[in-house]
Amino acid sequence: MIYKIHYFLILIIGFNNLNAQNIVSTFEKEFKLQIIVTGTFESSFENVNYEEVSNEKLLNKYVSEILIPEFKKYPDSYFKNINLKQIVLCKNLNIDNQHRAAIPDPKKNTLLLSIDSFYEKLYLKHVLHHEMHHITEYALWQDMFYNWKKWNKKNTRNFVYGTGGYEAYETENKNIDWYKINNPIKGFVNLYSTLGQEEDRCEIVALLMTSEEKLYLNQFIETDKNLKRKVNLTLKTLAKVSGKKLKYWKEKLEL
Ligand SMILES: [Zn+2]
């Protein structure tokens, strides 16, 4: 009987491994990107730490339910155009001891994604698109903090951005709801967007690409002309990077 149980367990474990590998290789082939699940990747940033994912079931679920459907939203050549080559799937991801769901590392052509199950599914999707756009901006400008004058002109006069996304993670700002999507200031989807130009653009892309959140954006731009101009400029950026027409993105995102 013991032998039978052991044999049964080996079968189950073997089957799960195979499943996760299959789904990972399906992704790799479809998007021509490599997935790293071992702890071997070294970030170009100092103080980035993460742990390997040991739960095959969780890995499988993340790749099939989030990674594949969300990556499918981008046109074929997109990842090649932004020089993305690999995805690190991990857990307990942090930078300077701050927990993060994702970190873009464009110098290493890599997007790090934490698949910890305590993050909500919607947040995991949002953050994936947000960080992907940081990589897109780096491909465009070789700078993740590019000061785009044309962009700034779309804001209301006298508006001044904060000192960057990092500000939201500072202890004294912990009680502020940075991510609430409520168009708190003319031209902005949330307070996080007011911290830096790059975060503003990445938040707009995250809303455009996350179907559950796009509804908010559609609603805001009906009355917020500043935000509408920024959404249009963002769509033009996506068109430029992907080598597609503006119409393609407008149709794709039903705008
Ligand atoms: Zn960001």
What does this structure look like?
The chain is an alpha/beta fold and 255 residues long. It folds into two domains: 1-119, no CATH class; 145-255, no CATH class. Helices cover 49% and strands 11% of the residues. It has helices at 2-31, 56-71, 78-81, 121-141, 149-152, 197-209, 211-223, 225-242, 246-252, and strands at 34-36, 48-51, 86-95, 98-99, 102-105, 110-114. Strands 1, 2, 3, 4, 5 and 6 form a six-stranded mixed beta sheet that branches. Helix 1 (2-31) runs parallel beside helix 2 (56-71), helix 4 (121-141) crosses helix 6 and helix 7 (211-223) crosses helix 8 (225-242). The radius of gyration is 20 Å and the shape is globular. It starts with a helix and ends with a helix. Mean pLDDT is 91; it is low at 8-15. Bound molecules: zinc ion.
Task: Spell out the blueprint of helices and strands.
Elements: H1 2-31, E1 34-36, E2 48-51, H2 56-71, H3 78-81, E3 86-95, E4 98-99, E5 102-105, E6 110-114, H4 121-141, H5 149-152, H6 197-209, H7 211-223, H8 225-242, H9 246-252
Parallel strand pairs: 1-3, 3-6
Antiparallel strand pairs: 2-3, 3-4, 5-6
Helix pairs in contact: 1-2, 4-6, 6-7, 7-8, 8-9
Zinc ion binds next to α4 and α6.
